[in-house]
Design goal:
By secondary structure, the protein is of the alpha/beta class. It is about 40% helix and about 20% strand. The chain has 2 domains: about 170 residues, Bordetella uptake gene, domain 1 (D-Maltodextrin-Binding Protein, domain 2, 3-Layer(aba) Sandwich), CATH 3.40.190.150; about 120 residues, Periplasmic binding protein-like II (D-Maltodextrin-Binding Protein, domain 2, 3-Layer(aba) Sandwich), CATH 3.40.190.10. It contains 13 helices and 10 strands. Keywords: Signal.
């Protein structure tokens, strides 16, 4: 019941039905004035990563459109919990927005014994983009396909790197284990880059990682790409099939790149941000940056965004409980 209430707390409040209702004029006035000062985009991961680049791309457009500075501030740590906690504690006025990925809200609450925020304290403003992961192995393993991977992982334990415990790659590995009965051992690293390097160096057999992290090594023949976990093929590696195409539908896995705000943020202020962000996602230069990161624009807002995240949260809750995953 507590998780259901947390999921429902993401659903947007019903708008005022009449401008004659108490407080309605003040809300409309706030919308007219917003933004009247700089807006802070908090990215809860290190600079240079996909969510950071997305935040800066959107900030650039909004700064020109809404005529106020939009400043990106990085607050990494604890798998995104530190930055999210800072935003949850900020005033609910639209001047502090979190840019990150869904796992901070769909995985971490089930992984960490204590959290600096509760899921119900924040809600999704928009699902900006999605991306799948790339399943890649070191060529020295002799694994040439997903079928080979499954057969080998049923015969012996394989080590797969991830960007850390509870990261999308770790969750994807656990999904593979649960769906197939294969034995994959998660080896956490501090980020996608060292996790990808571990595959190339032969420290691990493979990894399920963000495509840009593995792409240079795939192009150089130092990593064998087996499949992508997204619903569609990657535009960066269009020749690589999806897991669903290969008959592994249960392994389909996508990362949601989300903008989150404190739950009490006024609806009119949210609408201003939503419209401006939708415009940013439609810009050719922003779409080009997303494509280079293997990200697809999304744009879901309100109840649709909240319901998707609530469904993922329940899926990952079951997976984490079954696998007995704990934070490092």
């Amino acid at each position: 019941m507590r998780r259901l209430l947390g999921a429902l707390s993401w659903l947007p409040a019903l708008p005022l039905l009449s401008m004659g209702l108490p407080g309605a004029a003040g809300v409309a006035h706030a919308q007219d004035l917003y933004p009247s000062k700089p807006v802070r985009f908090v990215n809860n991961f290190p600079p240079g990563g996909p969510s950071d680049i997305l935040a800066r791309s959107v900030a650039q457009v909004l700064q020109g459109e809404l005529k106020q500075p939009f400043v990106v501030e990085n607050k990494p740590g604890a798998a995104g919990n530190l930055g999210a906690g800072a935003v949850a504690r900020s005033p609910a006025d639209g001047y502090t927005v979190l840019f990150g990925i869904d796992t901070t809200f769909t995985v971490n609450p089930h992984l960490y014994a204590s959290m600096p925020f509760q899921p119900g304290e924040m809600k999704p403003l928009m699902i900006l983009a999605t991306s799948g992961l790339l399943v890649g192995v070191n060529p020295a393993t002799g694994i040439g396909s997903m079928a080979d991977l499954l057969a080998r992982a049923k015969a012996k334990t394989l080590n797969f790197s991830s960007a850390g415990s509870g990261s999308p790659g770790h969750i994807a590995v656990e999904s593979f284990r649960r769906a197939t009965g294969a034995t994959l051992n998660n080896v956490p690293y501090k980020g996608s880059s060292p996790a990808a390097t571990a595959v190339v160096a032969g420290e691990v057999d493979g990894g399920m990682l963000a495509t840009p992290a593995l792409l240079p090594f795939v192009k150089a023949g130092r990593v064998k790409a087996l499949a992508v976990t997204g619903a569609q093929r990657s535009t960066l590696l269009p020749e690589v099939p999806t897991v669903t195409e290969l008959g592994f539908k249960a392994l389909e896995h996508e990362v949601l790149y989300v903008a989150m705000v404190p739950a009490a943020t006024p609806e009119p202020v949210q609408r201003v941000l939503e419209r401006a962000m939708a415009d940013a996602l439609a810009r050719p230069e922003v779409r080009a940056r997303l494509a280079a990161l293997d990200m697809r624009p999304d744009g879901a807002v309100g109840a649709a965004a909240a319901q998707r995240m609530a469904a993922l949260s329940e899926r990952y809750r079951q997976l984490i409980a079954a696998a007995g995953i704990r934070a490092d």
